[in-house]
């Protein structure tokens, strides 16, 4: 129940700062919970682990170009969510310059800070529509340690991304290609990955950590397919959060979830999970540990480091069965 229990040391050169030339060429560490066995495979082997009655559930959110600089270059904004017409919830740097009443210009459109949330996010009302596609860039994770490049526009999106609204990619889905999707039974839901994915856990007692709420949507078609499945194979921790927060059987609906999954919680809706390797002490690593046990997961991470797997968003993946 301590954040420090989820720490490990990662060599800097194992952070994947660029994707592989082909999505499907990632390595895949397979964890068999029964027997605590580990296999080393390739992602292209993923369909062979599915059994009759399985349904692969994917998050079809699309990352928006949410990182924007003011016209004078002095303010960095991360557009998180449209609260109402022309009013956005934003993270801003530096915050001291963006008190209530302060103004900022983006593409010659003036915005005024009209509110400050308890966690420091600003509500900014603009005098017109801010075209993020023209003004912004994809908010790549800070650990990439580099600027956005032209190839990221395609590779930091899943091939099935369609519902705009995320500020980070559901990275377990980055390995899929249209050809692999055609081989497997699948359905979609939507969870817009929010700013919580960037924020570290600030307390050592996990019971004191509060997750940011993230918006989700489950369609009628998706709910029917999910409820008819024998086993759900979730692609990514974002998919797990929706399925576990709603439970089975699902109903079609839109809403928000701030569920925080960590041991000793045991997933009730999800039967198998494909996920990438996550940062030390992160809520994502804690979620994976709820699925397979902290000791087994950290042992698998240690083996992945020894075998020089590639870590984080553009890295390799692991399949938990």
Question: What's the layout of helices and strands?
Answer:
Layout: E1 27-32, E2 37-42, E3 54-59, E4 61-63, E5 67-69, E6 76-84, E7 87-93, E8 103-106, E9 109-116, E10 122-126, H1 132-135, H2 152-155, E11 163-166, H3 178-183, E12 186-191, E13 214-218, H4 220-228, E14 231-235, H5 237-246, E15 253-257, E16 272-276, H6 283-292, H7 294-306, E17 317-320
Parallel strand pairs: 1-17, 3-12, 3-14, 4-11, 14-16
Antiparallel strand pairs: 1-2, 5-6, 6-7, 7-10, 8-9, 9-10, 12-13, 13-15, 16-17
Helix pairs in contact: 6-7
User: How is the biggest beta sheet arranged?
Assistant: 9 strands, mixed
Overall structural class, as computed from helix and strand content, comes to: alpha/beta
Tell me what the CATH architecture of the largest domain is.
3-Layer(aba) Sandwich
CA radius of gyration is 20 Å
Concise account of the structure shown:
This protein has helices at 132-135, 152-155, 178-183, 220-228, 237-246, 283-292, 294-306, and strands at 27-32, 37-42, 54-59, 61-63, 67-69, 76-84, 87-93, 103-106, 109-116, 122-126, 163-166, 186-191, 214-218, 231-235, 253-257, 272-276, 317-320. With 321 residues, it is an alpha/beta fold. It folds into 2 domains: 3-63 and 141-320, QueA-like (3-Layer(aba) Sandwich), CATH 3.40.1780.10; 67-135, QueA-like (Thrombin, subunit H, Beta Barrel).
How does this model look, in words?
The model has no long low-confidence stretch (mean pLDDT 96). The chain folds into two domains: 3-63 and 141-320, QueA-like (3-Layer(aba) Sandwich); 67-135, Thrombin, subunit H. The protein is of the alpha/beta class. The chain has helices at 132-135, 152-155, 178-183, 220-228, 237-246, 283-292, 294-306, and strands spanning 27-32, 37-42, 54-59, 61-63, 67-69, 76-84, 87-93, 103-106, 109-116, 122-126, 163-166, 186-191, 214-218, 231-235, 253-257, 272-276, 317-320. Strand 6 (76-84) and strand 7 form a beta hairpin. It is globular. The longest helix has 13 residues, at 294-306.
């Amino acid at each position: 129940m301590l954040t420090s229990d989820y720490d490990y040391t990662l060599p800097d050169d194992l952070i994947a700062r660029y994707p592989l030339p082909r999505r499907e060429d990632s390595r895949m560490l397979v964890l068999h919970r029964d027997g605590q066995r580990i296999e080393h495979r390739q992602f292209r082997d993923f369909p062979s682990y599915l059994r009759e009655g399985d349904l692969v559930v994917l998050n079809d959110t699309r990352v928006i170009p949410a990182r924007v600089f003011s016209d004078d270059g002095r303010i960095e904004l991360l557009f998180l969510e449209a609260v109402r017409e022309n009013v956005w919830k934003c993270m801003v740097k530096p915050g001291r310059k963006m008190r209530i009443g302060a103004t900022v210009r983006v593409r010659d459109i003036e915005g005024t800070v009209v509110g400050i949330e308890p966690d420091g996010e600003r509500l900014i009302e603009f005098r017109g529509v801010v075209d993020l596609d023209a003004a912004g860039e994809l908010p790549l994770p800070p650990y990439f340690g580099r600027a956005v490049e032209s190839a990221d526009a395609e590779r930091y999106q899943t091939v099935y991304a369609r519902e705009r609204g995320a500020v980070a990619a559901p990275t377990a889905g980055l390995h899929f290609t249209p050809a692999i999707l055609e081989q497997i039974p699948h359905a979609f839901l939507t969870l817009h990955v929010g700013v919580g994915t960037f924020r570290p856990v600030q307390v050592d007692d996990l019971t004191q950590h509060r997750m940011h709420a993230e918006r989700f949507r489950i369609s009628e078609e998706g709910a029917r397919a999910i409820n008819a499945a024998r086993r759900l194979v979730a692609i990514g921790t974002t998919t797990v959060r929706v399925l576990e927060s709603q439970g089975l059987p699902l109903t079609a609906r839109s809403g928000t979830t701030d569920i925080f999954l960590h041991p000793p919680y045991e997933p009730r809706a999800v039967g198998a999970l494909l996920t990438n390797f996550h940062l030390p002490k992160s809520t994502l690593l804690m979620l994976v540990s709820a699925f397979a046990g902290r000791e087994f997961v950290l042992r698998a991470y240690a083996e992945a480091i020894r075998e020089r797997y590639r870590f984080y968003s553009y890295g390799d993946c692991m399949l938990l069965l």
